[in-house]
Amino acid sequence: MQKGGPAAQWAGDAVAGTDRTRTAVTGGPAVILVVPQMGENIGTAARAMLNFGLHDLRLVAPRDGWPNPKAVAAASGADEVLAAARLCDTEEEATGDLNAVYATTARLRDMIKPVLTPAAAAEDMRARHQRGETTGILFGGERAGLSNDDAVLAHALVRVPVNPAFASLNLAQAVLLMGYEWFRAGDTTPGTVLDLGVTRPASASELHGLFDHLESELDAAGFLYPPEKRPAMVRNLRTMLLRAGLTEQDVRTLRGVVTALARGRPRRS
What we know:
Mean pLDDT: 86
CATH architecture of the largest domain: 3-Layer(aba) Sandwich
Number of strands: 7
Structural class: alpha/beta
Number of helices: 10
Distance between the termini: 89 Å
């Protein structure tokens, strides 16, 4: 691969969770790996990037050279990220075209810089991208992370709130975490999604039919007794069933259950 240019195209196999027919998410900050050591770690970092639509991978003086076939095997199909990776000699070269750079770190630095959580950094990057600015995230080598000379070139530091007694993330984990926060900051997916499959939410008339059916059988069984307590018991039952968020299939199943339980039972006169 020419320095600063794309690598040769990699051939990749489909993996679980991959659907090439769907529209890909693109854009986002550059991921800059400063003196990464093992090709496997570069590959897993590329896989983490592609999970969250990040494609701009920049490698600063990788220890084992580049391209690296071990990175391809570890990328599990994130070939497009590896193919477009830029090889740089220095951090200055890797960040020269960026408007803002964020340095990930596991320890406090003797620098007067903003220190952000990953979530706060993602929000800041999103705001910058909306203004047309470009950003990048620095990740240090596997053994010691970023040096102070590396971190001093960043506009802000990013520290992950982790167990202070064991603040040890591997390279791919760190990239995945930052990629997730970047993606989440721009995601509009609701927090809870109910997959109804082939059914649908029950209509009011279907629910009323269930109520009438159930209550008539409970009357016949003598459950809704004495009469003066019946209204309150009915309200409680209906409230409970409505709280369940029943589907049309749920209603049909419950009515079948009520019918089966009532079949052959002596009815109260």
